[in-house]
Structure formats: structure tokens, C-alpha cells
Amino acid sequence: MEAAIILPAMIFLLLCTIQLTQLQQARIMAEYAAFSAARAGIVMNGNNGSSNGFSDGPMHDAAVLAILPTFGRTDSFAAIARSLVQFKLKDQVLRPFGLGQVRVFVWSPTDAAFTQFGQQLNGKELDFDDVRPAVLPHTLLSLQVRYLYEMKVPFANKLVQTIWMASRLGRAGGLRTWQGWDLTGPKLGSQKGPDAVAVARAMALGHNVPDGTPEGVNLAGLSLLGNTGHYFMPVDAWYSMRMQSNPYRRWAHK
Fold first, then answer.
1. How do strand 217-218 and strand 208-209 relate by DSSP bridges?
2. How many C-beta neighbours within 10 Å does residue 13 have?
3. In this predicted structure, what is the pLDDT of residue 187?
4. Structure confidence by residue, pLDDT tens digits, 137-150
5. Torsion of CA 235, 239, 243, 249, to 10 degrees
6. In this predicted structure, what is the pLDDT of residue 81?
7. Tell me, what's the pLDDT at 196?
8. Pairing state between β 231-242 and 217-218
């Protein structure tokens, strides 16, 4: 009888541990993606593509290549091509929900810096090797990469995502009122309360949460996508690197 009570909880905790370990791997890959995006951007004028880092541009492509090992093998050109196909197919699943797997957002240089320090280049560029002390901070390319990582460990993926969403909703998420001995099905307020997971996911439908980018994280899209059996977690990373080519105003932080 003791085993019947304890074993399910232990198995569930083990699944959560595996899922959180995989999330840690995704965080490390996101940090490498931010480094790769910055390295591409510094030699390509801070080019963030026509979609402002949502789906194209050298920095976006560099970030995608960096996180490809989380999709499959990348030890040959053929393997990279297969993993890239998987990435693009999954991206097509996300688009109808207003989501994208990789988002590159530029924080620096700012648009105002071009007006102030780029007069000799008609305000359209900054001289990357300008040695004036006031200009130096603006010749750093600083960016943020958001990677939507799909969690695939059964049971744990849904609960971990829901706990994260509830925590971002603050008091409205009611996370502190979750109760119940069944870890896979917590209740809201009391042992006989409503399903806490279902309530939190329903409340997420009307919210975006800030993450530094203009659009934030679309909780509604994540919650709706979860209804199809796909549970994603946003993982953010930041990186700064000195420009090695003139940054263009068109890709500056507005």
C-alpha cells in the first residue's frame, strides 16, 4: 500500500527532474544562439532582417543554426539539413498561434544614437571604429534571443508550463492556492476545488507577459497550442559584442 501511494509521486518527480534538466540544456543552447547571432550581426551591419528578428535575417539564421542540436543530429551537412527541416516544420505549427521558435531583438545601438553621432554619414550609419568616448557604448551590438523550447517529457511538460504561466499571471494565476496530494492534478483552494491546471491555462488565454521585447510572450498562444499536445517554454539569453562593421539605422533599437 505504501508503494502504491509513494511510487506514482516518485515517478512524477523523476519526470519533472528530467524535464527541468532538458530546460537547462535549452538555456545553454539559447546563450550560444545569442553569441552566434551577435557574431553574425557585428560583421553584417547589425542586419536583423525584414521581420525584425522574427523569421529572417543573418542574426536569426545564426541563432537557428546554434540551437539545431536540440532538434537532431548536426554532425554532417545532411544531418544539419534534416534538423533544419524539422525546425521549419515546427515553426509552421507555431505561426497560426502568433508564435515563433526564435526571436532576435536588438537593444543597442539605439535609433537616437544615429542622429547624435552619425551626422557625417547622413544619420544612416555609425562609424564602428569611432574612438570618441561618447560614441563607444553605441558601437556595441546588444541583443536578446528568445527560444521557444518544446518540452516533451509526458505529464511533466504540461505541469511545468502551467506553473510557469500561473507564476507570470501573479495573484490572478492563483499559484499559491494550489493544493492537493495528487501532484499530477493539483486543486485550486482546497482538496475539492476546481482543477488548478485547467483554471490557470484558461486565465492565460487573455494575457501577454513582458520579456523585454515589444510583443512580450503570448500566453494565449502557448495555452491554445498546449491543447494540441505541444508545450513550449520561452528561454531568453542576452549578448553584447563590439561592432566590426558600420551599424545601419534601419535595424537599430527604436
1. antiparallel
2. 12
3. 82
4. 999 999 999 999 99
5. 50
6. 94
7. 80
8. unpaired
Average pLDDT, the chain: 89
What are the backbone angles phi and psi of residue 152, rounded to the nearest 5°?
A: -125, 0
Dist. CA 16–CA 98, nearest whole Å: 28
Query: pTM higher than 0.85 for the full model?
Result: yes
Which residue type does 115 have? T
Separation of alpha carbons 101 and 88, rounded Å: 9
15: Cα separation from own chain's centroid:
22
Instruction: Encode the chain in three state secondary structure.
Output: CHHHHHHHHHHHHHHHHHHHHHHHHHHHHHHHHHHHHHHHHHCCCCCCCCCCCCCCCHHHHHHHHHHHHHCCCCCCHHHHHHHHHHHHHHHHHHHHHCCCCEEEEEEECEHHHHHHHCHHHCCCECCCCCCCCCCHHHHEEEEEEEEEEEECCCCHHHHHHHHHHHHHCHHHHCHHHEECCCCCCCEECCCCCCEHHHHHHHHHHHCEECCCCCCCEEHHHHHHHHCCCCEEEEEEEEEEEECCCCCEHHHCEC
Encode pLDDT of 124-138 as tens digits: 999 999 888 999 999
Residue whose C-alpha is closest to residue 251's, from 98, 36, 59:
59
The C-alpha cell of 212 is what? Answer: 523585454
pLDDT given for residue 182 in this prediction: 66
Inter-axis angle of helices 196-203 and 219-226, to 10 degrees?
Answer: 130
pLDDT < 70 positions in the chain:
1, 4-5, 172-173, 181-184
Q: What is the pLDDT of residue 123?
A: 87
The amino acid that residue 241 corresponds to is M
CA angle in degrees (0–180, nearest 5) for 156-162-166: 145
